[in-house]
Amino acid sequence: MTKKQAPKYLDQAFAEICEEMIATFIKKHKDYGKGNILDTGELGIVYRESDKLNRLKHLLTNSKNPSNEPINDSWQDIAVYAVIAILLRKGLFQKLNIDPKV
Questions:
Q1: CA 24 to CA 80: how far, in whole Å?
Q2: I want to staple 12 with a disulfide (CB 3.0 to 4.6 A). Which of 7, 28, 33, 43 is the partner?
């Protein structure tokens, strides 16, 4: 296995994080489906993001090392929820499905 090279440019690093977000979104979407988002809509997303932000505030202000999931995972979840909210507002989350080939 070859070691992946570090990105040379900021936009490349950004794209790598976005690829990780897509992988996380697909994995979690396969586990959860759409119901949890469609039941509560955009306001439900706000509450989920609020939970994540409160967790981050607690961990960062108390210098705690999380025992469940890394801090980066919380940041990624917040970003993924933001994209889901945009898709929901555009009507795309409701009508589109994950590509069955992934």
A1: 8
A2: 7
